Inverse folding.
């Protein structure tokens, strides 16, 4: 523990660790030092001068080294001639800080007056008005009136797009540099900066497209004025009209804590609508940041029950070949009857965006009928994560020197941006990062070791690492042996094994279900063998493709490799939150009877015999289990739309019609059942999930100037589950099964292998309805090496006909030297049917003239 | 060995080059060759010292005669008359200062500027700045030799400390103490930086030092590096100083080739490398922490201080940042000892100072004189009196951030202590001498225009304060001022001094403060009488409408009377 230092701030004695800045020490003591440029997450710069205070230090006798005493025995304190910045000055023993003097008061008044000389004071039309640090501090510390003349204010551009997502109002900017510093220090996307100097200083973007960063929205939260606003919320509502509802981002397995700001508005027909997404502080998950996908891609939830969106509004039953609206009673009766007839012929296929409660009920229903369940995913290993997954108490913020992080088969910047951010920060604190991948990714910039393997050898690479650590060298398959000879791989393995803490994140790049299973097992073996299990900051994390796939595994769902056959042979297929037919037309041949439970009329739903419309997760409550196995609650943000039900309720009601004991009313009661039946979730209830503890930095509505407008967390930090290894269970090593075909056998006649990759912003169903993002989402494309392209005579940008799994689609050619030769990268959820590595045929599409 | 009979040096500073110095050089070269004198006459270039009015100059030694301005037409005359026949060309003759170098044969002339005491400029104008041999002939590198072979770093720092040398960049911090801080700083490696980003308007002493005697800076930096324990040094030179840059580049190369820089200097195990970096034209980069940021490749903005560069400088390491002139004093101090150095200047301010004289005097240029001479001496002796016999009104010292000194203070000795007492600062040594035709409001406006343009905009008070100060002064100069503006200006100035992050904001209002202190009546005249006594500000006469409006404004008494009458109703 760092040395403690005691000082006096405005007469109050404060003891804080050495190195703490005065401004933070004051905050901890409940004394507000006003700031604009300072932000507790960033390096101080002392630009705005708002935090100036008087600082006195005890006089030390040079000869004796002792503190000089006054006549009354108190230490003699000498004050500097000038005011000093509380944000750049660390505390020292015996320091006396005065923030309440006339001199300081006058200084603060002057600074505010200076700032306001060039501020347009257009608060009545400013998005920040009502939650604006400049407003608040002017009210709190300002002079009340200005000597400066309104007519002499500088006039500058008010609507400067820094890209499609963020707008700059140059007049409002007070040049605190928080946004510039966030982008360079925290996001390491230095795409905006200061240009010019003096009163001509302005923020500019120098990327193409403008402000090209996945974290750009955060700058609008920490901007202390209304200079930066999002295109999404801009002029959308006034802060004081907004209600807030705690929620969890449903876009990826990080499980960022968010707040939905809602209001009831005439523009939306008098209904309650979501106006924006704001980060909600959870220092163990997302701190106070969210990525732009989480911030802007919520629009898919809109319009429930209103009929003015793509959302389904009422149950549909196929009559005379056409889907026709029916009552819930009728639809549920039809479904229940079919399910009863199907019995063990029921196959329930669920997607990973469902909540734990939905998944639990689905499993209970299906098992009650003797049917089978399947998880619609291309990733495996959730069972291993439950065994050797990260220990309870894991927090990236605690990782630094002594921690090793291995990321394999994942482009984290695209797949889980907040994890990317937090791993980058862990590396900056001294953690050792190993990135294993088939091609360069952005995260490698921070890696101490990079292990390169060919697509198809993901598990082999990890096994090779493991093998290089043991003296015994059993007979290994050739790919493993070849990789094990790489010095870089050996060094990485040694470094990982030698670290105090070891964490592995595995993803799904280049992998299908079988490969993923093998990789997960290999990773688990590495962790078990190097004893990096059963403790906090150790273990396995899966970079799932959807938010709650870990929860689905925990509820008992498993993916199956023979899904297509199983779907065809099922007597009744019950598809919930999945669209196999949309992803791959060959999956359209379902069994005898198809029930689809969905938000939208998907391609699969169009084929269904019964379609059951459900509520979006913003319209109900529930819980997700994050990749770090943190169970977190989300609350309803907008009222339940008439005519829709939550997934768990639909399933519960079907079950009840079938005489099964299922909870169909309250998600909280489903959680109680989960807690009683699923060992890992024992003891959980909604009350525990809602518990909070004090977090640092202190953010929230009361002092928006300090941490920005990120929301204080008062609705729950969630509970991280303990894996089996931490609960004392034995975890066995198992030999992973390699994919039946080797890499070369899978390639097509042209010798090209399609490898799936993941994009943050794709054309998936939960992204595409947010039209604002369209400019950042390219046309369907595949990426290939220029050398391969040259052989095939494919110029960059050419339109290709890509034949995958028997389906031909059009896609643009992206040439990229980072793509290994012989491989075609195919992004998932971009309109091309890719599930795992597969042979691919590409040729230039014939240009059809109109 | 060849006997050189004459040495011909052609001035080669940017202004001279602009005026055709290079053509003159080539013509001289050709002419000397065609006259068959090339075995007896050596031709070279010099950085010009002092004289700024008769460029390009051609100096001929050993007679130490200066001709200027020299055109191509004069070349034949100079070669034929002077070099061939040994007769001075009286029609082209310009007198120069007494060279104060150590070669006795150069001290034979009279009739030039009065004797200056030259330490930092002792070789400038005398040696060929491209020639290491010249530098070595003039005692070059004896100081480094002495330092490396017979002195410990502590002894060197002690010697510098004892000499009483104070920083010549403007603040006057004791150099020896700064060196001591850097030496004592625990972290490694350490760096030294020569601040040659001379951006204070009107100051060009560092340019003259570098252009005239580039090796002395390199020698001084090497000594400093040895003293503080640095192995890497940087010269941050103003981007416009192309010639100085070239000469430094050449000097660094020559020094490296001769084992005077680089690895194993003087055969010892001391290693020191110098990198040259040209600035990009921002005034603020002369501030040491902004300079460091800029050197690190970042936006040139001052850091929050403390920590100061001696403990946390370049890349977070202990860094010595010294002005070029400060460093240029070092070789002489080491060579002659601190005792010798202390004989120059006054008890509180030792040594000499290079002043750059500008404005309404008969002679403008640079001089080096001991600290403690008075402004009157500078104007009368070196400036050769005020132009057209006009009266001195004020002097601005030290460039834009410097003080305004009224004529009444012209007998105050110019040293750090006396001027501090008089409420002024010596600054960089620029002396802007203004006669009574200078308007103080206009002067303030020009200075504030500079600051509002050059404020780096990092901190609020400076960014908006400079703009606001300018607006108010601009309004006064146009006849839109009010008396209340003057209090506001003073208050703003005080606020900026108290609240700003660095020297720029803290001193931007110094000149204005001095003007309001010494020339308030003149500023008030602009406001109350709409008059500019110097005739510089163009204040339009009030229009008939404005006069009528002013007359129609009811007096306070009338208002009170009116209010009284309504109450009684």
């Amino acid at each position: 523990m760092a040395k403690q230092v005691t000082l006096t701030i405005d007469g109050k004695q404060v003891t804080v660790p050495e190195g703490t800045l005065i401004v933070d020490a004051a905050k901890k003591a409940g004394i507000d030092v006003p700031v604009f440029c300072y932000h507790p997450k960033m390096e101080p710069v002392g630009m705005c001068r708002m935090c100036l205070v008087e600082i006195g230090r005890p006089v030390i006798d040079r000869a004796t080294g002792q503190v000089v005493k006054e006549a009354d025995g108190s230490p003699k304190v000498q004050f500097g001639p000038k005011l000093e910045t509380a944000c750049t000055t660390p505390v020292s023993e015996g320091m006396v800080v005065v923030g309440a003097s006339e001199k300081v008061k006058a200084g603060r008044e002057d600074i505010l007056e200076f700032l306001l000389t060039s501020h347009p004071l257009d608060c009545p039309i400013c998005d920040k008005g009502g939650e604006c640090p400049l407003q608040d501090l002017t009210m709190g510390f300002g002079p009340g009136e200005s000597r400066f003349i309104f007519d002499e204010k500088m006039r500058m551009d008010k609507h400067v797009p820094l890209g499609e997502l963020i707008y700059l109002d140059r007049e409002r900017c007070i040049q605190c540099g928080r946004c510039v510093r966030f982008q360079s220090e925290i996001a390491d996307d230095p795409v905006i900066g200061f240009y010019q100097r003096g009163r001509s200083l302005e923020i500019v973007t120098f990327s193409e497209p403008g402000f090209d960063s996945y974290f750009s929205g955060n700058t609008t939260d920490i901007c202390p004025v209304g200079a930066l606003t999002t295109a999404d919320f801009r002029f959308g509502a006034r802060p004081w009209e907004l209600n807030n509802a705690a929620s969890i981002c449903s876009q990826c397995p990080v499980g960022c804590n968010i707040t939905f700001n809602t209001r009831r508005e005439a523009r939306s027909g008098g209904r309650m609508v979501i106006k924006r997404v704001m980060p909600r502080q959870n220092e163990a998950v997302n701190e106070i940041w969210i990525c732009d996908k989480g911030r802007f891609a919520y629009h898919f939830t809109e319009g429930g029950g209103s009929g003015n969106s793509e959302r389904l509004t009422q149950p549909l039953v196929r009559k005379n070949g056409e889907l026709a609206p029916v009552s819930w009673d009728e639809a549920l009766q039809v479904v229940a009857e079919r399910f009863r007839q199907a019995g063990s012929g029921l196959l329930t296929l669920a997607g990973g965006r469902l909540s734990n409660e939905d998944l639990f009920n689905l499993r209970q229903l299906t098992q009650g009928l003797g049917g089978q369940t399947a998880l619609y995913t291309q990733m495996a290993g959730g069972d291993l994560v439950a065994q050797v997954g990260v220990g309870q108490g894991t927090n990236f913020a605690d990782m630094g020197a002594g921690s090793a992080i291995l990321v394999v088969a994942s482009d984290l910047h695209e797949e889980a941006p907040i994890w990317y951010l937090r791993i980058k920060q862990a590396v900056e604190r001294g953690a050792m990062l190993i990135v294993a991948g088939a091609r360069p990714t952005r995260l490698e910039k921070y890696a101490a070791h990079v292990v390169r393997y060919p697509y198809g050898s993901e598990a082999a690479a990890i096994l090779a690492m493991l093998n290089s650590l043991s003296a015994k060298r059993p007979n290994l398959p050739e790919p493993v042996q070849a990789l094990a000879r790489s010095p870089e791989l050996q060094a990485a393995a040694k470094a990982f094994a030698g670290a105090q803490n070891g964490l592995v994140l595995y993803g799904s790049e280049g992998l299908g279900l079988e490969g993923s299973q093998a990789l997960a097992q290999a990773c688990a073996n590495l962790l078990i063998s190097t004893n990096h299990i059963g403790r906090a900051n150790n273990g396995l994390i899966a970079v799932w493709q959807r938010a709650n796939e870990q929860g689905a595994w925990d509820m008992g769902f498993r993916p199956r490799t023979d899904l297509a056959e199983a779907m065809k042979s099922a007597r009744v297929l019950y598809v919930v939150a999945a669209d196999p037919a949309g992803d791959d037309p060959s999956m359209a041949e379902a069994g005898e009877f198809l029930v689809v439970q969905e938000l939208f009329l998907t391609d699969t739903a169009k084929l269904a015999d019964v379609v059951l419309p459900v509520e979006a997760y913003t319209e109900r409550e529930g819980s997700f289990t994050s990749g770090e196995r943190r169970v977190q609650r989300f609350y309803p943000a907008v009222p339940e739309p008439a005519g829709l039900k939550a997934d768990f309720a639909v399933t519960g009601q079907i079950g009840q019609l079938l005489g099964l004991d299922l909870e169909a009313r309250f998600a909280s009661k489903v959680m109680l059942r989960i807690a009683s039946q699923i060992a890992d979730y024992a003891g959980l209830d909604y009350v525990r999930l809602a518990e909070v503890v004090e977090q640092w930095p202190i953010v929230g509505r009361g002092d928006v100037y300090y941490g920005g407008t990120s929301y204080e967390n008062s609705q729950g930090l969630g509970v991280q589950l303990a894996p089996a290894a931490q609960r004392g269970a034995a975890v066995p090593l198992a030999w992973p099964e390699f994919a039946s075909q080797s890499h070369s056998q899978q390639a097509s006649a042209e010798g090209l292998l399609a490898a799936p990759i993941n994009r943050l912003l794709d054309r998936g169903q939960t992204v595409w309805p947010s039209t604002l993002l369209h400019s950042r989402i390219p046309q369907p494309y595949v990426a290939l090496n220029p050398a391969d392209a040259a052989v095939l005579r494919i110029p960059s940008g050419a339109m290709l006909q890509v034949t995958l799994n028997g389906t031909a689609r059009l896609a643009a050619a992206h040439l990229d030297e980072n793509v290994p030769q012989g491989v075609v990268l195919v992004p998932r959820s971009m309109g091309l049917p890719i599930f795992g590595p597969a042979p691919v045929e590409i040729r230039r599409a014939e240009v059809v003239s109109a | 060995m060849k006997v050189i009979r004459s040495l011909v040096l052609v001035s080669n500073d940017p202004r001279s080059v602009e005026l055709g110095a290079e053509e003159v050089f080539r013509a001289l070269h050709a002419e000397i060759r065609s006259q068959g004198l090339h075995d007896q006459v050596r031709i070279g270039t010099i950085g010009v010292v002092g004289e700024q009015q008769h460029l390009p100059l051609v100096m001929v030694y050993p007679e130490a005669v200066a001709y200027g301005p020299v055109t191509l037409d004069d070349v034949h005359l100079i070669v034929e008359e002077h070099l061939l026949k040994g007769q001075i060309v009286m029609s082209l003759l310009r007198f120069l200062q007494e060279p104060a170098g150590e070669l006795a044969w150069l001290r034979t002339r009279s009739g030039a500027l009065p004797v200056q005491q030259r330490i930092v400029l002792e070789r400038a104008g005398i040696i060929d700045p491209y020639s290491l041999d010249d530098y070595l002939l003039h005692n070059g590198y004896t100081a480094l030799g002495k330092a490396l072979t017979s002195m410990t770093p502590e002894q060197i720092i002690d010697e510098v400390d004892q000499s009483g040398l104070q920083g010549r960049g403007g603040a006057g911090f004791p150099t020896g103490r700064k060196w001591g801080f850097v030496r004592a700083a625990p972290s490694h490696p350490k760096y030294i930086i020569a601040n040659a980003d001379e951006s204070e308007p009107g100051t060009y002493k560092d340019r003259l030092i570098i252009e005239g005697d580039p090796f002395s800076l390199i020698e001084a930096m090497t000594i400093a590096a040895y003293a503080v324990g640095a192995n890497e040094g940087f010269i941050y030179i103003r981007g416009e100083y192309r010639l100085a840059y070239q000469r430094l580049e050449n000097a660094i190369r020559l020094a490296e080739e001769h084992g005077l820089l680089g690895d194993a200097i003087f055969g010892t195990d001391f290693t020191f490398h110098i990198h040259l970096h040209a600035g990009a034209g921002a005034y603020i980069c002369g501030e040491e922490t902004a300079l460091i940021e800029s050197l690190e490749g970042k936006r040139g903005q001052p850091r929050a201080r403390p920590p100061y560069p001696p403990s946390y400088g370049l890349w977070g390491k202990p860094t010595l940042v010294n002005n070029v002139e400060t460093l240029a004093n070092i070789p002489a101090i080491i060579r002659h000892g601190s005792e010798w150095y202390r004989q120059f200047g006054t008890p509180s301010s030792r040594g000499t100072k290079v002043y750059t004289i500008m404005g309404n005097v008969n002679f403008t240029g640079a001089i080096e004189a001991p600290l403690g001479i008075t402004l009157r001496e500078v104007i009368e002796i070196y400036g050769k009196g005020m132009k057209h016999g006009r009266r001195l009104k004020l002097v601005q010292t030290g460039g834009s951030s410097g003080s305004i000194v009224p004529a009444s203070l012209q007998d105050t000795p110019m040293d750090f202590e006396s001027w501090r007492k008089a409420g002024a600062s010596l600054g960089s040594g620029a002396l802007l001498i203004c006669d009574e035709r200078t308007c103080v409001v206009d002067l303030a406006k020009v200075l504030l225009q500079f600051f509002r343009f050059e404020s780096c905009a990092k901190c609020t008070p400076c960014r908006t304060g400079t703009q606001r100060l300018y607006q108010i002064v601009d309004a006064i100069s146009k006849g839109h001022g009010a008396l209340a503006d003057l209090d506001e200006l003073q208050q703003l100035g005080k606020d900026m001094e108290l609240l700003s992050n660095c020297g720029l904001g803290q001193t931007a209002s110094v000149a204005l403060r001095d003007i309001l202190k010494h020339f308030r009546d003149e500023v008030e005249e602009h406001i109350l009488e709409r008059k500019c006594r110097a005739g510089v500000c163009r204040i339009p006469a009030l229009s008939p409408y404005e006069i009528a409006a002013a007359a129609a404004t009811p007096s306070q008494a009338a208002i009170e009377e009116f209010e009284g009458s309504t109450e009684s109703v």
Notes: The mean pLDDT of chain B is 87. Chain B touches chain A through 28 residues (CB under 8 Å). The first helix of chain B runs from residue 14 to 18.
